[in-house]
Write a structure and sequence with these properties.
- The chain is α+β, with helices and mostly antiparallel strands.
- 62% of the residues lie in helices and 10% in strands.
- A hairpin with a 6-residue loop joins strand 2 and strand 3.
- The protein is globular, with a radius of gyration of 20 Å.
- The model has no long low-confidence stretch (mean pLDDT 86).
């Protein structure tokens, strides 16, 4: 890896950790708001047991790191080891400061938490790393328990369960604001990764690892594909192009999978305004606009 690329990754990770930790300690926690993932679960346990949520966050991060290593292997664990150790430490440092960006306005707090935390998560993902958390849990459950459900759907269900639990610990208003924070956060992540792009993207992939990529998209991402036989204009060699339409988050998962298999792969990412037909996130062709 070139020094310039490494420094760029470190910069993205560092800024991402700072933004995310700031959003949690200066906005989310002081306003008694909730979110999904291990952050939300840690806040729930803090409220129930009276032990600081940063302690639970660190414990969960290390447990997920170990479980990922045992179930998904060393390579997958290497993607989250940095954040599993670094971010909880940054979170603990930030929690020592009594700084509150927004107080007594849950709507503004939920909105700005989503923007700042989403920007932080987006920068971390843009660097090629993973935050671990529910992303890793989703991959583990997909592989070991629910291979017929996509990783993205599993992650969404986990976050939803945590938010539902928060109703019994806090109240329904907190849970409803938690849904708002998740929606804003996810949109902020998409903007960081792809700019102000549509909700769907089309990937055109040319790679020597065609069969493995096909299997990954069909059976783990749960998206359909189309294949074309093409001839390289420079090499005059016959190849296969894989085309799939998916969400920006899923496209990043596919990109990271391909990067591990074939560094020379060619992936073209195109924004999609709308898709008519059968499929997750697509409009039925008979549906009125």
């Amino acid at each position: 890896m070139k020094v310039k690329e490494l420094l760029k990754e470190i910069f993205y990770v560092a800024i991402g950790c700072v933004l995310l930790a700031f959003a949690i300690t200066a906005i989310l926690e002081p306003n008694n708001l909730m979110t999904g993932g291990i952050t939300g679960l840690s806040l729930i346990l803090d409220n129930v047991l009276g032990i600081n949520y940063t302690v639970f966050y660190y414990i969960f991060s290390l447990i997920i790191l170990l479980t990922t290593y045992l179930t998904l292997g060393k390579h997958e664990a290497s993607k989250i080891i940095l954040l599993s150790i670094l971010f909880p430490a940054v979170l603990m440092v930030f929690s020592q400061f009594d700084f509150k960006l927004i107080e007594d306005d849950m709507f503004l707090a939920a909105f700005y938490y989503g923007i700042i935390a989403g920007a932080g998560v987006g920068l971390i993902l843009k660097s090629g790393y993973s935050t671990g958390g529910t992303d890793s849990i989703g991959k583990i459950l997909h592989k070991k328990r629910y291979p017929y459900i996509s990783v993205n759907q599993i992650i969404t269900m986990i976050d939803l369960v945590i938010i539902i639990i928060s109703i019994f610990v806090f109240d329904i208003r907190v849970a409803l604001y938690a849904i708002l924070t998740q929606l804003v956060l996810l949109k902020a992540v998409e903007v960081i990764l792809y700019g102000l792009s549509p909700k769907l993207v089309k990937l055109e992939i040319i790679s020597e690892a065609e069969e493995k990529i096909t299997d990954f998209i069909l059976h783990e991402i749960k998206r359909g594909i189309t294949k074309y036989n093409i001839i390289g204009g420079y090499s005059n060699v016959s190849k296969t192009k894989i085309i799939t339409i998916c969400s920006p988050r899923e496209s990043l998962m596919i990109k990271n999978f391909i990067a591990d298999l074939d560094e020379k792969a060619f992936v073209d990412v195109l924004p999609v305004m709308s898709v008519w037909g059968e499929g997750l996130g697509f409009k039925r062709i008979t549906e009125e606009n």
